[in-house]
Amino acid sequence: MGLPDGFLWGGALAANQAEGAWNEGGRGPAVSDVSKYRPNVDPREYAVHHQHTLESIAAAMADDDIAFFPKRRGIDFYHRYREDLALFAEMGFSVLRVSIAWSRLYPTGEELEPNEEGIAFYLDLFTEMRRLGIRPLVTLSHYDPPLALALKNNAWVDRSTIALFERFSRTCFERFGHLVDLWLSFNEIDGIIRHPFTSGGIIDETVEGSLEQACYTALHHQFVASASVTKMLHEMWPESEMGCMLTMLTTYPNTCHPDDVAATQAKERLLYLCTDVQAGGAYPRLALKALEAKGITIPFAEGDVELLREHPVDYISFSYYMTLTESVRPDAERTPGNTVLGVKNPFLPSSEWGWQIDPVGLRISLIDLYDRYGKPLFIVENGLGMRDELTDDGRIHDPYRIDYFRSHFAEMIRAVDEGVELRGYTSWAPIDIISASSSQISKRYGFIHVDQDDLGNGTGERRRKDSFFWYQKVIASNGADLA
What we know:
Largest sheet: 8 strands, parallel, barrel
CATH architecture: Alpha-Beta Barrel
Strand content: 5-15%
Number of domains: 1
Shape: globular
CATH class: Alpha Beta
Low-confidence stretches: none
Distance between the termini: 17 Å
């Protein structure tokens, strides 16, 4: 049967990993600007290494360095976006997922009027995308709250941030709504539990009480903000759609031992909490009981329950990179994934970074999500981070990347054949960008190579990899030709 006509093919980027120009055009500092280059961090230490203290933040902001703070430079998408968009159009993209840097529009998050230089940049970006026939899919918050909000009140822990985000979102809808009709509120909203500073601007040492309680407080405020801006979008642009975005961490029991099955069930209950709230409109009873058992309370304010119930998202998007397994055995071998650790699956291969490769897991994830919610789905992140080698003739031969995508696309199409309503697919990332976790570029995802090393040396020249031409062929055939 294959994919439907009008299926959206493209790629996905984040402002904090691609744009650069961290101190240009009136942009204010974001939490991503204090993320340091850490290529050799043990994945088991990920959460520790992504904590920030007042002292470390002050030291980072006193330093103008862009070598060891790579997200400040990105790949210079801010200045080279026309060149990059032309390459995406050459591949045949019908959609490109990008994000809007909040601090490029509101440098501290608290200004009453937006920064017009920031508005002009995104207007130019979206206009050029539309000229090339590329539909913008825009994330409002992608791991870069304004640093000023983190320093002032732990950003999303403070309920006042909801109103500031509403002002930012209204500006985005007012100024860009004629060019953008597909939106996402928060990138991997569940990530705030794993990396509170990156997702929510939470500085551990300034939190009063339990950090875990602070994370769930902040998460609730993001839920409320998401419902509020969904309502706002529908009022301002009735034909536009708002989606949510989940880190799809599909988990299998490591064995058929009932305790492993029960542990997996408990893990998935919290995995689906975010989509249950944003797509289903309410906190599920079992998830609330599980949080209550941990001593965590949800800070409901008057009107929250009604707002969540009455303004769910229109579609569900998710990232998918790997699956995990779960076991109650304390000696079970753990392996890294997308900012998580899971028990290693002996039946799956792993990338150099330990992420296990599971194409069938994508089909399982699609079917589970659609069966659970019955809402349209969108795969907005999926890809393979690898080291690429430039040959003497200036080529990048990456059959491993083609194999990865071929196997995942085949399973994606099988899920659609089984009845899943899938709107589109955006790879992460179509061009090499700075890694979210380690701030390195040598962990490359793109179909397009960027001549830059981990410390920023290089010309920035863009080169088409072998996978570029393969993906071009896949898009032209709407997934029918995966050879």
